[in-house]
Amino acid sequence: MPQLLDLLPKSELSVFKRALQTLALQNRIAPLLPNQGQGMQVVRWDGTALVIFASSGSLATRLRNQAPSIIERLKQAGIPVSDLKVKVAVNVPPNKPAKRAVMSDEALASLERCSEQVHDTRLKASLDALIRRQRKLIRFD
Questions:
Q1: Has residue 35 got a pLDDT over 80?
Q2: Local structure of 130: helix, strand or coil
Q3: What is the domain partition of the chain in residue ranges?
Q4: Cα–Cα distance between 36 and 77 in angstroms, integer?
Q5: What is the greatest pairwise CA distance in the chain?
Q6: Measured on CA atoms in the order 58, 64, 65, 70, is the torsion positive or negative?
Q7: Strands 49-54 and 83-88
Q8: 50-79 pLDDT, tens per residue?
Q9: pTM of the entire structure?
Q10: Three-state DSSP string of 69-113
Q11: Which residue among 3, 66, 89, 134 sits deepest, i.e. has the most Cβ atoms within 10 Å of its Cβ?
């Protein structure tokens, strides 16, 4: 039975291995960090320098202030860290779906009556398009 690493193209293999190594390091050092590493993520390790993303500015400040003691704990655990860099992770919230305002049947009927009395062709076309869109929304809800 093939291993997962055997199924990856060679171009992606080194990236996948680095991700696994970073995850393993995250799990190894989490108990040595404040709050058991909650809100923190190891993003890079080059053998001496460790880069951690913090989920907030206050947590990043706390880690920076405790960096000397954290480095010492990591060294005692056999991880040869000489530099600890802490950055704030930028979390972009997912896009919210657009709100769909649906008019009542009474409002649509009123708009249709209004559209029949409008003489401006562009305004009439816009009102008719709005009415058609609203009718579609009502059918799909």
A1: yes
A2: helix
A3: 4-88, 105-140
A4: 15
A5: 84
A6: positive
A7: parallel
A8: 999 999 999 999 999 999 999 999 999 998
A9: 0.56
A10: HHHHHHHHCCCCCCEEEEEECCCCCCCCCCCCCCCCHHHHHHHHH
A11: 134
Output the six-digit token pair for 55.
Answer: 């989920």
Structure tokens belonging to residue 29:
């050092």
Q: Return the residue matching tokens 């039975």.
A: 1
Whole-angstrom distance, CA of residue 31 vs CA of residue 54: 16
Tokens, residue 21: 């190594």
The DSSP 8-state label assigned to residue 9 in this structure reads -
Closest CA to 61 of 28, 30, 39, 45: 39
CATH 3.30.300 fits 4-88, yes or no: yes
Structure token pair of residue 103: 């008019």
